[in-house]
Design brief:
- This protein is α+β, with helices and mostly antiparallel strands.
- The protein has 6 helices and 5 strands; from the N terminus they run αβαβαβαββαα.
- The protein has a 5-stranded mixed sheet with strand order 1-5-4-2-3, with helices on both faces.
- The longest helix has 33 residues.
């Protein structure tokens, strides 16, 4: 028969061990989720063919259900930026053009020389106000 004090201590230590494991899993889980959430990324390159095909200096690839895509659309509209939106979840043509970017998330904002993956209001404003449409289109 086990001493009641030892039984009590065993229960306390078991509980503490479970709490420690749960806390570690919670911390690890948060770390993993943070690493999986894509931060907006800027990438320079020659995207002029996509811009030319779209017929606008700014192209936004989005989905109809993405909240960040809605924010990107609203900002472009508020800034009165000449742009076109391709909803990749409803259009085969949009998906095909989006596929040429080899992107794996939305929104993706594309100008002739820059691509921003993810929504970052400051990055959008910086790009689209530096010289207006000329900066967006890549023209000198």
């Amino acid at each position: 028969m086990m001493n009641p004090v030892l039984r009590r201590l065993r229960g306390v230590f078991s509980t503490l061990a479970l709490v420690a494991v749960a806390a570690a899993c919670g911390w690890l889980g948060v770390s993993v989720v943070r690493s999986l959430v894509a931060q907006p990324m800027q990438q320079t390159g020659d995207y002029s063919a996509i811009v030319r095909e779209a017929g606008h200096p700014v192209v936004l690839f989005a989905t109809t259900t993405c909240p960040y895509c809605r924010q990107a659309r609203a900002l472009l509209d508020a800034m009165k930026v000449e742009h076109v939106v391709y909803d990749v979840d409803v259009s085969d043509a949009a998906r095909a053009l989006y596929g040429r970017l080899h992107a794996n998330s939305v929104p993706v904002l594309v100008t002739a020389r820059l691509r921003i993956t993810g929504f970052d209001e400051a990055a959008y404003r910086s790009l689209l106000t530096r010289g207006g449409a000329d900066a967006a289109s890549g023209r000198p």
